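Task 17 of the worksheet. Students: predict the tertiary structure of the chain below and write it out as structure tokens. Keep your answer in the requested format; marks are given for formatting as well as content.
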Amino acid sequence: MSDLTPKPWIEAISPYVPGRSTTDDGRKVHKLSSNENPLGTSRQARDAFLAAVTTLDRYPDAGAAALREAIAAKYGIEAERIIHGTGSDDVLHLAAGGFAGQGDEVLYVRYGFSVYPIAARRVGAEPIEADDKDYATDVDALLARVTPRTRVLYIANPNNPTGTYTSRSELKRLHAGLPGDCLLVVDQAYSEYLDPEDDDGAFDLARTEPNVLVTRTFSKIHGLAAERIGWAYGPARVIQAMYKIRAPFNVSTAGQHAAVAALDADDFVQASHDHNLKWRTWFEGEIAAMGNKGLRAVPSKANFSLVLFEGKLTAEEAYKGLMDCGYIVRWLPNQGLAHGLRITIGTEEEIKAVAAALRELVEQAG
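Model answer:
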């Protein structure tokens, strides 16, 4: 009698590894490994969340009607073309589940979000990685890897974990080069950290084109990571296919209310954007000043910086040294970035302390 075994494409998955919050010896430290908002959550969202916890005995609205209507009003899009999920990760998986399967390919850029290959393998599709251009998305490299089997192409903008940005013209060129039976998924988890002039035009493409989906999340700038609320906007046919495989009641009642309120917290969002821009710029300047020691920050448009270690001090040594100082950042050897650390832009105190610790570590390395 043979043993029960998972499908081979499931066995091939390398599970997602979340950012750590404790040290090797169990100490609770400053967490700069998951790109959470250092300013917390808006007062409006917190109040709405607390007011909604009186209905724990009732299932949440399965269609999240109020949330979808609020999103539609905020962004000038159609509520019936919006789908919600358990974080944007869930929505990314639904895209692969609706449009890829065994024998198909799912394409993404090297140093892209680690959920993309997992979403591909989960449905039996083959994950395909295209070359980058100095850690940024290379449109020509992506198009060169498109085949008749390519069914989904993921692009994060800004990209995670590099923080790099693809312009409106390049995104439009990428879409123009794709066949009609390939779904372009634009993952905008960090889009609120962009300046208005950096709008990549993804919503415009999703509004008019039959094969473009845009995903977003409330986990980052809105500070609702604990509630796991994501959403996507796209063509009716795409959204309908994803709804067929979406889990029911997937966003809590309190989470839905908090997300609706978060959309009205413009002052909080602007303050979060401005804080991030100020201290990301400052931090990248500090890293540039250590360039003669082999440190380099990839120019970022997100709420983190990817710092490369190309001198005597290695990324692993810096990771452990920062942990000893009470700061956990993200070391990503499993994504081909053994020489880099992704560092969330935290509070003023945190980011100054990290910069000071790195200066001391590079001096010790000689």
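Marker's comment: Residues 274 and 292 are 29 Å apart (CA to CA). The longest helix spans residues 266-289.
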